[in-house]
Amino acid sequence: MSNQFFFLVIHSSTIKSFLMTDLLVSTGMYYGLKSMSHNEWISIIGCLAVTETYKRILTFYRHSCL
User: Fold this and answer.
1) What is the DSSP letter of 3?
2) 30 to 8, 17, 34, 58, 62: CA distances (angstroms)
3) How many structural domains does the chain have?
4) Which of 59, 55, 34 is nearest to 45 (CA)?
5) pLDDT reading at 66 higher than 70
6) I want to staple 42 with a disulfide (CB 3.0 to 4.6 A). Which of 3, 11, 12, 37 is the partner?
7) Cα 49 to Cα 46: distance, rounded to the nearest angstrom
């Protein structure tokens, strides 16, 4: 057996980005859709769809503009 250690470095900007997109945006969209539709399933599906679309747009923007 070889003794190998793997270190994973996570930048603070990555953590901030995760918290911003997955927690704040998705929570806000969930409660916004919940208040408009009064349907739990629509709120959950809409929240997932908007969050994933937001992440893909940010990724596309970062790759095309930088």
Assistant:
1) -
2) 32, 19, 6, 20, 26
3) 1
4) 34
5) no
6) 37
7) 5
Boundaries of domain holding 59: 39-66
Tell me the CA distances in angstroms from 22 to 2, 6, 8, 33, 61, one per residue in order.
38, 27, 21, 16, 18
Residue 30, domain member (yes or no):
no
Structure token digits, residue 13: 């900007």
- In-domain check, residue 61: yes
**Residue whose C-alpha is closest to residue 48's, from 66, 20, 25:** 25
The lowest-confidence range among 7-11, 41-45, 54-58, 60-64 is: 60-64
Tokens 């790759």 map to which residue?
63
Residue type for 46, please? Answer: G
46 in a structural domain = yes
* Closest residue by Cα to residue 34 from 47, 22, 24, 23: 47
